[in-house]
Fold this protein.
Amino acid sequence: MSVARLAEVGPLQAARQFEAYGWSHAAAVVVLIVVAVVLVVAGRRYRGTPAGQRLSRGLALAFTVFLVPVEVYYVLPWQPGIKYSLPLQLCDLASIAAVWALWSYSPTAFALTYFWGLTLTAQAFISPELHGPDFPSLQFVSFFGVHSLAPWAAIYLTWGMGLRPNWRSYQVAVLVTIVWGVAMFAVNREAGTNYGFLNTKPLAKSLLDMLGPWPWYLLSELILGAAAWALITWPWVRQQSVSNTRTG
């Protein structure tokens, strides 16, 4: 979700402002970790059973109940318009993919949830682009809530339910991300937006600051991202290869 849009929704502007690495930020990280651990434990307990499928679909419905009102709220008439409000950021799309993956176990949806959720979306907890009221404001809850869905789903499906990425899912994630990037760059140029920070860097300090000026940071981001995704794919592929050798 574009957090710049969260900064411009005015009713709670007089409230205490969010500060990165403050107590509320730390609390959000703790909640992320605790819920992830609970999901892994539950996933392992019910893996391969009808109860496991019901649990996954229940999570999909719970995520939807949270996500839909948030996304609808930011496209209401009094919001700042398409500059920030459309659900076109990768975190928004990752949350949608997470719901799809939880409901269907689709390999494509799982690939996007795994790679986007564990890297791009999770980065929001390292360098939150949140310029607005602190907890318990809608801006705070919606920001960290939306950015938690894909990581939770990725962790649950991988370490809980036993789904595994492979080189095909890696290729799917890279291809879809490149297509999205090209499409969003064109949209940004025409609409004056900056979805994906493809046209300028975010206001808050982020990892992009270490990747050079525009447009070179885009190439650096693609190369580093593809390398990082390969690194979080290889152990699972290696594990499967060793398992097949032992049983062959």
Observations:
- The chain has one domain: 3-240.
- Residues 75 and 81 are 7 Å apart (CA to CA).
